[in-house]
Design a protein that fits this description.
3-stranded antiparallel sheet; alpha+beta; 6-stranded mixed sheet; globular
């Protein structure tokens, strides 16, 4: 494994002859996009100052070569990445987390251990870490960082449009094989991976595998780096961040976290003007009572045991995070961006990779997608759109069927969480952001749990009476509330998505036009937001 810490050479690094073209301050701020609202707050969450010369010196020391060029690469929302080129032709990538990435010590220490585990224990192609630093008090750079090799191959996003359907199907198989390794490797606890010498109070993971390997003895499970436990003001809250032994403990911690947010945060989401919130004392009390009811029924509505195993899964498999062989795009050469990946119940993580997913109506199971009836009567433009839709659905279907054959546990977990007749299929995902969504959606699902309790228990082979109840008057009133809320939120969300997206981020090139659109529609969006809030 041989991953070095900067303490081994921080005071020995030789000087470099870097030709400077940018001031240090250029490296500190976010420069890859703009926000249509709350821009200063968003920029502050992504501003991090560090000692640039010392970072270059450490990278030079690692590869025994002088750094001659440092380039800031396009940024994600949680990290800064720099390319450091050496005079011998080598390239080192430096990755520095932004303040919004979570606790910097945990985030970096866990990502390094996770990459090591994936690469050297599970034999999954991920970047090779050369050095890292945590905690920062022993760090001449002044912030946590990771230095790693640039991966081989090309980003999938660069070659996707030129790949044939057969090549894309081949890529599906390659990714399913990697996911099978991940799903087959269950852990004893829910949390995040660390090195034992970095986090000595963590829990050993070796006992959770069929064969205890010596290489696993250096890893432990510690507090989760899952962003929903750290984002925005949550970093300051005293909440349980694990590790947790059971799925019930993990899900209880999520519900308790949301209750703490409701009690303590004046406006979850840092004044996000596109998030409707009901903040009156009566609404807060109602919301807290509903979350208590969820905790009451939780032990009885857990998904099947085989889907509750804690596993590691990548959460963002899009074209920029997958690298493929330069000569054969069906072969995956590396998967990047494992920051905040954590062990959690399989059923809470199983989903289609975004590169193979689409929003088109999807025929689940053995039903094959096909062209629409009357295809021959469509115009050429309509035929082209229909064929594109079929291509997307065929790719998604190939992924589903390949997973059913080679990684069936993964698809079974997805099956479990998509039963339209069972409200427990949706309630666990809803709980994760309940403090943002307000009480109405949770109330509706809990009422459905109460109404369908006997059928839910029958499927589980139990006859336990429902421990929560709603009167007919409460149900009738609740149904009117959720109907009005759904109509109002639908109008609000459609306009929000059209003018600002999830958080108001736009590319620099699109900023002027997007800002004009936002200013023209802002008042209408605020009216729709207030309409939703009145119903919460």
């Amino acid at each position: 494994m041989n991953i070095r810490s900067d303490s081994q050479f921080s005071h020995q690094a030789r000087s470099t002859n870097l030709t400077r073209t940018e001031p240090d301050s250029y490296y500190f701020g976010y420069t890859s996009g703009r926000w249509l609202y709350n821009e200063q707050q968003q920029l502050e969450k992504r501003h991090v100052e560090f000692n640039v010369p010392n970072l270059q010196k450490i990278a030079s020391r690692i590869v025994s070569s002088q750094c001659v060029q440092m380039t800031k690469l396009p940024e994600g929302l949680y990290n800064k990445v720099f390319s450091l080129r050496m005079d011998n032709g080598r390239e080192v990538l430096a990755r520095i987390p932004n303040p919004n990435a979570g606790h910097p010590r945990y985030v970096v220490a866990s990502e390094v251990a996770t990459l090591d585990f994936l690469r050297n224990v599970l034999d999954i192609p991920v970047p090779k870490v050369l050095s890292w630093s945590s905690p920062s008090r022993h760090n001449p750079v002044g912030v946590e960082y990771i230095l790693m090799e640039r991966v081989n191959g090309r980003q999938l996003s660069e070659v996707w449009d030129t790949m044939s359907e057969a090549e894309r199907f081949g890529l599906v198989k390659s990714l399913v094989e990697i996911e099978k390794k991940l799903v087959s490797s269950s852990f004893a606890f829910h949390g995040s991976l660390y090195y034992k010498d970095t986090f000595p109070y963590g829990t050993s993971i070796a006992k959770s595998f069929e064969t205890e390997r010596e290489s696993m003895s250096s890893f432990v499970i510690g507090p989760t780096t899952q962003r929903s436990f750290w984002e925005d003001e949550k970093q300051e809250l005293d909440i349980d961040r694990g590790p947790w032994e059971t799925a019930q403990e993990y899900l209880s911690a999520i519900a308790n976290r949301e209750m703490t947010c409701i009690r303590n945060l004046t406006h979850t989401g840092i004044n996000d003007i596109t998030v409707p919130l009901g903040t009156t004392p009566q609404r807060r009390d109602m919301h807290l009572r509903l979350l208590e009811q969820f905790l009451t029924v939780l032990p009885h509505i857990l998904p099947p045991e085989e889907t509750l195993r804690p596993v590691l899964l990548h959460h963002d498999l899009h074209g920029d995070n997958i690298f493929v062989d330069s000569e054969d795009p069906t072969k995956i050469s590396s998967i990047i961006d494992w920051q905040a990946v954590h062990t959690a119940p399989l059923c809470m993580q199983a989903k289609f990779p975004s590169i193979f997913d689409c929003d088109d109506p999807y025929p689940w199971g053995a039903v094959q997608p096909k062209l629409p009836e009357g295809f021959d009567t469509l115009s050429q433009t309509e035929k082209g759109l229909a064929q594109d839709r079929l291509d997307r659905l065929r790719l998604k279907k190939v992924y589903e069927l390949a997973s059913r054959k080679f990684n069936p546990t993964h698809i079974q977990a997805m099956d479990t969480m998509r039963n339209d007749d069972d409200p427990t299929s949706f309630i666990f995902h809803l709980i994760r952001r309940s403090s943002l969504d307000g009480p109405i959606p949770l109330q509706e699902l809990l009422m459905q749990v109460y109404e369908k309790w006997d059928g839910i228990m029958e499927r589980k082979g139990s006859a336990i009476p429902c421990p929560i109840s709603f009167s007919n008057e409460e149900i009738n009133k609740g149904r009117l509330q959720v109907e009005a809320w759904a109509d109002a939120y639908g109008d609000f969300d459609a306009l929000r998505e059209n003018i600002v997206g999830d958080d108001g981020w736009v590319s620099i090139d699109e900023y002027k036009e997007a800002m004009h659109k936002w200013e023209n529609n802002r008042a209408t969006l605020m009216e729709l937001r207030e309409r939703v809030e009145r119903l919460l």
